[in-house]
Amino acid sequence: MPTASGHxxxxxxxxxxxLDYFDTNPKPANLDRQITLARTFIExxxxxxxxVALVTSGGxxxxxxxxxxxxxxxxxxxxxxATSAEYFLQAGYAVIFLHRQFSLLxxxxxxxxSTNCFLDFMTHNGAGAVVVEHEYQHQxxxxxxxxxxxxxxxxxxLLPFVTVNEYLWLLRGLAMQMxxxxxxGLFYLAAAVSDFFVPAERMVEHKIQSSEDFHEKxxxxxxxxQPAAHMEDKRLVIDxxxxxxxxxxxxxxxxxxxxxxxxxxxxDPAMLAVKSRYALEKYSHHLVIGNKLNTRxxxxxxxxxxxxxxxxRVPAGRRTKGITGASGDAxxxxxxxEPAVEIESIIVPEIAAMHTALINKWESDETRK
Length: 369
Ligand code: PAZ
Fold this sequence. Notes:
Layout: H1 4-24, H2 31-47, E1 52-57, E2 62-63, E3 71-72, H3 79-90, E4 94-100, H4 109-112, E5 122-124, E6 130-132, H5 137-153, E7 156-161, H6 164-178, E8 185-189, E9 196-197, E10 229-232, E11 235-238, E12 241-242, H7 246-254, E13 259-266, H8 269-283, E14 287-292, E15 299-304, E16 309-313, H9 344-368
Helix pairs in contact: 2-6, 3-9
The structure holds ligand PAZ.
Ligand PAZ is lined by residues 76-80, 190, 192-193, 263-265, 291, 296.
């Protein structure tokens, strides 16, 4: 059982780790330009009194070499983030979409994935022009008009990252820029961020040579650690450091007045509620959304600070595209198919309502002071 002083010590270590992180891992070359874009965007929407959501999306990479040939990645395509961003925009938010480069984007996601190639929606009209197939006209016209409106109002800012290092620098920089929004800022952390990484001081410069004839000699001084990825005999050994707990810093230091929502992904059903609650209690933010890898498009678990746990589910009968009224459809059976209703269309309005309640509470607390 950890003691109170043990907890305090752990807290302190976590903060120090995170502060050290930015002293010892390089600032991305284009960070200042991205932060300037965000500042202008936030200022505009703050002036208009609009809420701003920072939506993170897609997976982060962990490079093994400075001149990167090999890296570790994860499965996320950015579906959750890109879909949610559309519903935040629909709910009147301005959205900063912090996404993995080349992952799915709001609006274009409907036509850009390998299963949704835009060419499959097109045809020749017989008069030499290429047009949208008749059966897709209605849906595409709707997506197009929502996209055009967002462009016209400048309510969507796209900021890409690739590595976990870029992600962390950006998240901190953007959180600082969002501070003046106060309670109107919201963080929706759907990106799949690596828990492990190669710190700059343990990263090799060049491509790791697989052939024994070209192995670099270790040549390390006393007490120095090996490069995180190196060859031993014929084996590639990868020894990663933990990524410091940035959520704690976000909640306590970088965005103390914003609403913060994190996601928790699990594969073992028995771990989902336990780990989601653990994360909420550890970081003391507003909401953890638990989801399982195989069922994440059909159901999620909302875990809140008041002790509440609530499943949000695609309604029975809408669980599979093209099948209506099939109320008994087992969620697991539908794994390979798409639900007829996007679960984010339920998640995001729920969050917007929770955000309204929080803003009202914070405002009435302020007036009582
Ligand atoms: O990008 P996607 O839609 O395929 O997956 C979304 C998700 C499962 C990555 C997201 O819902 C999530 O749980 N993100 C947090 C993952 C984690 O760090 O536990």
